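Give me the fold.
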Amino acid sequence: MPIDELATALEKRLQETLPNGRLIATRLSLAPEIQLYLFDPQSMEVPLTHDQAQAVVAEPAYWCFCWASGQVLARYLLDHPELVKGKTLIDVGSGSGVVAIAAAMAGAGKVIAVDIDPASRHAIEVNADLNQVRVEVREAMPVKGLEIITAADILYDRDNLTLLSEFRDKAERVVLADSRIRNLQADGYNLVTTKEATTWPDLNEFEEFNQVRIYLAGNV
């Protein structure tokens, strides 16, 4: 589906670093119930200039890709609505908003998507509107009312490992998806399933990053 008026400003954000870049509304293979405005690989018909490549590295548009862990966690919530039904859920490092949107579809009472990137927050708002669900968007995690915390693919930065104990202390339940650490050793987190998935559009990542593990902590 081509981009519509609601996403025009979002596409302009992408074009700040990729002048020829476009977004396209895309249904996810693992969760076809969900559509997201994602990067259209067909828009890049010519190689990046050196300056464009440097700009992409300096300020990557994570929000215009649906990362493997996000897709798997979205599918998991849709398949296990009892985990979130009627609960207040905070999705940390929300990116495109895929997990937050899935939580809303699964019946969460209130969904808050948190991301420090203003472009990501814009993307979450546009994608939530595209899927006709209500998601509150914030820059920082609230300090009260944390029934469930979700997070997908935040451990690419090992500094974020310290967040795991914080999540467990603040929320009744934590649902974590990760493809970057093969053997996660984190107190209170139990591996419940592993599923294969790829980031979309496909970045041809190493196969090990296509193995997504779901962990639960707290009141499970």
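The domain at 69-196+204-218 is CATH 3.40.50.150 (Rossmann fold).
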